[in-house]
Amino acid sequence: MAGIAETVYAIQECNTIFPGEVDDFFHKSAIMQRYFSHVITAERETFGSVRFPPDNVRSLAIKMGDLSRIPKAQLTDALSSDYYVVFGSSYIKGELCDFLVANRAINIHMGLSPWYRGSSCNFWALYDRRPDMVGATIHLLSAGLDSGAILFHVLPAAGTHDGFLLGMQAVKAAHTGLVQHLRDGTIHDLAPVVQDKAQEIRYTRNRDFTDEIAEDYLSNGISPARINAALSHRNADMLVRPFILDDTQSDE
């Protein structure tokens, strides 16, 4: 975003960057440490390590869950932006939600809606042995969770990845696709497509991701070869304007 905008106002809801090691968003346990060690490795391979943002990013750090409690008047600078993008936030409610919906805010949902909705959707697609359903949905923000009209879907490129790296490639694809549409000024030219909730496969919450589920996934996960085979046979026709990341595309 900083590469295409004059100024980015980044309101960051924070939790630990060491999941599984400390009690925070996910509880502390040996199995969670094992699971998230794979997540962190894939994250660093895809995006690098934690670092300071570029000079044109004005950042406000708050605790996860506090966003809807902040009066709009305290966010005045940010609320005069050309575009509004929500990614991985807590559930936004009240006057801030109303403002963002009225201004056609864009939400990045990591998962293919309406099939997978809620939290950790790409994990659950892999848990269901459906790597072909790993991706992201770029949609208009709505008062309902992940239920806004769809602008386009995003898919990571096919390749011999393990599930952890595939999930991070999906995040990279989502950011790349969105930045390209914002840079081209075409994002709001796309006619939104209303979601058909009857197609839902799973709706998940954070509490559904337990030690037992993590252990089962680590012990019985899909091999990279089977993931690649599934990605090579995805049915993109079911998606809305699918954007598929390839090796020549970059979010820089």
Report what the structure shows.
This protein is of the alpha/beta class and 252 residues long. The protein has a single domain, classed as Formyl transferase, N-terminal domain (Rossmann fold). 29% of the residues lie in helices and 16% in strands. The protein has six helices and nine strands, in the order βαββαββαββαβααβ. Strands 3-4-6-7-9 form a five-stranded mixed sheet, covered by helices on one side. It has a two-stranded parallel ribbon with strand order 1-2. Strands 5-8 form a two-stranded parallel sheet. The protein is globular. The model has no long low-confidence stretch (mean pLDDT 92).
Compile the SSE list and pairings.
Elements: E1 8-14, H1 30-47, E2 57-63, E3 85-87, H2 94-102, E4 106-109, E5 116-118, H3 121-127, E6 136-140, E7 150-155, H4 163-184, E8 202-204, H5 211-220, H6 224-231, E9 243-244
Parallel strand pairs: 1-2, 3-4, 5-8, 7-9
Antiparallel strand pairs: 4-6, 6-7
Q: Brief description of this entry?
A:
With 252 residues, this protein is of the alpha/beta class. Helices cover 29% and strands 16% of the residues.
Beta fraction: 15-25%
| Overall tally of domains | 1
**Mean of the pLDDT scores?**
92
- Structural category is alpha/beta
Describe this protein with a few key phrases.
alpha/beta; 252 residues; five-stranded mixed beta sheet; globular; 6 helices; Rossmann fold
